[in-house]
Specification:
The chain is an all-alpha fold. The protein has helices at about 1-15, 20-25, 30-45, 50-75, 75-85, 85-120, 125-140, 145-155, 160-165, 170-180, 185-200, 205-215, 225-250, 260-265, 265-270, 275, 280-310, 325-345, 350-375, 380, 390-410. The N and C termini lie far apart (about 70 Å).
Length: about 425
């Protein structure tokens, strides 16, 4: 009887703690991420599944460090960076993060517009309505309400798993592709590999995750439950990505020319599923796109508001009134307006803006991860919860790999670069 009560208590604590990890990881599968995973499947079939498994390990390591710092210190990442490295060294990073996340928010509203157009709803209806709903949810709701709604939206990702099964995959072949590296020596494969990493591990993710954990006030004795949350979230998000690759690999690989692949966006992949997988699979893919974009359209502006207000010591938190945290809600509202209006204005180069945001994210991600490694190994800050030797090795290799790959990604966009030929 006593052991049963203990199991129920542990389950209750886990349910109370769970949220930030799952929300953050699921929001990472946004419109840009969906398009990247879909292109991986459409262009290279199953040959990038093994890389997705490796990326999942990296994501688990990085998110666990972020969660541990949030629980132990009770502070967000931007707050800790300011305290340790000073305001001047964080100002430039915050400016870049604000610009990059503005473009990313535009991408989320573009995803909402594309997904709803598949259902016959004009973007002039869906985009303003989505912006209003997101604004009311965050400004008028409390943190528990916001968290529950965002977790509920995450259920829509199950549509991608259903789409994958509807394509009738060969699971033996998928298993082999997941454990045996299949490297294509083409430039397209190399650059798409970098894009997969860049779209899975993002700077805004770390700022939001740690800030959300800090605001939730998770005590140190519940650290194990918070770790479970972020590890489960990291695995779940990449399982969804796994099925996006499977669905598009089985239905689109070999059916599209390189020029078609280069010009496609997330909504186009849903439309392309119709002739090979049926209208129902395409509708599921489109619903997933809308849900993913709504979730990320809420989380990305929130992560920016948290990061900037933490960095400069302003009041913050969705539990506060607008008058108590005007800068926090002002940044959040500004990004929503920019994202919605940019999609509605004619002639805006959305694709170029999305690519620019990826470049900026690639520029600041290595610096953010280095900051995290220094902070998480500071015994004055973390006490006995600093990284162990094995974690440091894994995290160090992850950071080094990301620095090399993001540097190569940026170099590939420079005219005249050997990587751009």
């Amino acid at each position: 009887m006593l052991s049963r009560l203990r199991r129920f208590r542990r389950l209750f604590v886990l349910l109370a703690v769970i949220g930030p990890g799952l929300i953050t990881a699921n929001a990472d599968n946004d419109a840009g991420g969906i398009a990247t995973y879909a292109q991986a499947g459409a262009q290279f079939g199953f040959r990038m599944l093994w890389l997705l498994v490796v990326i999942t390990v990296c994501l688990v390591v990085v998110n666990e460090m972020s969660a541990r710092m949030g629980v132990v210190t009770g502070k967000g990442l931007a707050d800790l960076i300011r305290e340790r490295f000073g305001v001047r060294s964080t100002t430039f990073a915050m400016a870049l993060l604000l610009v990059a996340n503005a473009f990313t928010t535009v991408a989320e509203f573009a995803g909402i517009a594309a997904g709803m157009e598949l259902l016959g709803v004009s973007k002039f209806v869906s985009v303003p309505l989505a912006a209003i709903v997101i604004w009311l949810l965050v400004v008028r709701g409390s943190y528990p309400i916001v968290e529950r709604v965002l977790l509920s939206i995450g259920i829509v990702y199950l549509t991608y798993i259903v789409s994958g099964f509807l394509a009738h995959p060969n699971w033996g072949e998928i298993l082999r592709s997941s454990v045996v590296p299949q490297v294509d020596r083409s430039r397209a494969y190399f650059l798409l590999s970098i894009a997969l990493i860049g779209t899975t591990i993002t700077p805004w993710m770390q700022f939001y995750l740690q800030a959300a954990i800090a605001e939730k006030g998770i005590p140190i004795d519940h650290l194990a439950y918070s770790r479970t949350d972020v590890i489960a979230g990291s695995i779940v998000t990449d399982v969804i990505a796994f099925f996006i690759v499977i669905a598009t690999a089985l239905t689109l690989a070999g059916h599209l020319s390189p020029s078609q692949l280069g010009n496609m966006q997330a909504g186009d992949y849903a439309r392309a599923l119709v002739p090979v997988a049926g209208h129902f699979a395409a509708i599921l893919f489109g619903l997933g796109l809308v849900g993913a974009s709504l979730l990320a359209g809420s989380v990305v502006p929130l992560s920016t508001a948290y990061a900037v207000t933490e960095a400069f010591g302003f009041e913050r938190g969705v539990d506060r009134a607008i008058g108590e945290a005007p800068v926090f809600f002002g940044i959040f509202t500004f990004l929503l307006l920019v994202g919605a209006l940019a999609v509605l204005l004619p002639g805006v180069p959305l694709v170029s803006m999305i690519l620019l945001s990826q470049d900026v994210n690639g520029l600041i991600l290595p610096a953010i991860l280095v900051y995290m490694l220094i902070l998480v190994n500071d015994r004055r800050l973390m006490g006995r919860f600093v990284n162990g030797p094995v974690t440091n090795v894994v995290a160090g290799v992850t950071v080094a790999g990301l620095i090399v790959l993001t540097t190569l990604l940026l170099a590939s966009s420079v005219p005249g670069s050997p990587l751009n030929r």
